[in-house]
Amino acid sequence: GQQLNQSPQSMFIQEGEDVSMNCTSSSIFNTWLWYKQDPGEGPVLLIALYKAGELTSNGRLTAQFGITRKDSFLNISASIPSDVGIYFCAGPPNTGNQFYFGTGTSLTVIP
Amino acid sequence: GAVVSQHPSRVICKSGTSVKIECRSLDFQATTMFWYRQFPKQSLMLMATSNEGSKATYEQGVEKDKFLINHASLTLSTLTVTSAHPEDSSFYICSAWDRGAGNTIYFGEGSWLTVV
Fold first, then answer.
1. CB-count burial class (<10 Å; 0-12, 13-18, 19+) for A70
2. How would DSSP label each residue in chain B?
3. Is the model's pLDDT at A39 over the cut of 90?
4. Are the C-beta atoms of residues B76 and B24 closer than 8 Å to each other?
5. A73 pLDDT higher than 60
6. In this predicted model, what pLDDT tens digit does every residue of A77-111 receive, in sequence order?
7. CB atoms < 10 A from the CB of B112, how many?
8. What pLDDT shows up at residue A101?
9. 3-class DSSP state for residue B88?
10. H-helix or E-strand spanning residue B59
11. Are B88 and B18 in contact (CB under 8 A)?
12. Which site among A32, A44, A97 would you substitute to test the B interface, given the most B Cβ atoms closer than 10 Å to its Cβ?
């Protein structure tokens, strides 16, 4: 399956710092999803976006559906140690029967 | 609560035997489910797309005769690792595509397979 371009691949930040990551695609998407995976567990859905330009928050997390419908951004404010994990984006392009996934961003928060 | 249930969460089997992992969508019907493999500290690796009532679509490099996928109902897909070897030991995760209003994928909890 095709993977989305996700960056950065990994981040090491101090507790309290803000985090930004993004995903880009060559195809137009109707839905953008952001997940977090803790070690040894299945990924958990954080935020779902369904409209171009949509900005949605979930606690300290904010995600945006890009205007071009080819990208999305996830921001984490005031990071804490429990934010550690792998974050990845996903979504179905507006044509076809596939669900694409980002390559993941590994986040490490240093207390 | 979980909308996709994966079972077993951990399994140990002897080399040469087969082991089956189940993935169930609990709150919705899923015509499409996905199976992944994940190595430590690496991202998910898509193995195959499971389609209800038809053959699974395998990713390049994944042996379809070794990793048998069956999607016999709208709520259940199974992955059978046949003639397992120690190198098959890994974390296997499934997900199910809810094509309803949310158009969202939900993941199972994952299954740790250890082949001894």
1. middle
2. --SEEEE-SEEEE-TT--EEEEEEESSS--SEEEEEEE-TTS--EEEEEEETTSPPEEPTT--TTTEEEEEEETTEEEEEE-S--GGG-EEEEEEEEE-STT-EEEE---EEEEE-
3. no
4. yes
5. yes
6. 999 999 999 999 998 877 767 788 888 999 999 99
7. 14
8. 86
9. helix
10. none
11. no
12. A97
Nearest CA in chain A to B97: A99
Closest chain B C-alpha to A1 CA, distance in angstroms: 7
Q: Using CA atoms, how far apart are residues B80 and A98, in angstroms rounded to an integer?
A: 23
Return the structure tokens found at A32.
Answer: 């953008």
Contact B49/A at CB under 8 A = yes
Q: CA-CA distances (angstroms) from residue B90 to A21, A37, B14, B27, B94?
A: 28, 16, 14, 28, 13
Peptide linkage before A92 cis (omega within 30 of 0) = no
Contacts of A56 in chain B (CB under 8 A): none
Say if residue B101's pLDDT is above 90.
Answer: no
Residues near B33 by Cβ (< 8 Å), separated by ≥ 6? B23, B25, B49, B50, B71, B77, B94, B95, B96, B97
Percent of chain B with pLDDT over 70: 98
Count of A–B CB contacts within 8 Å? 53
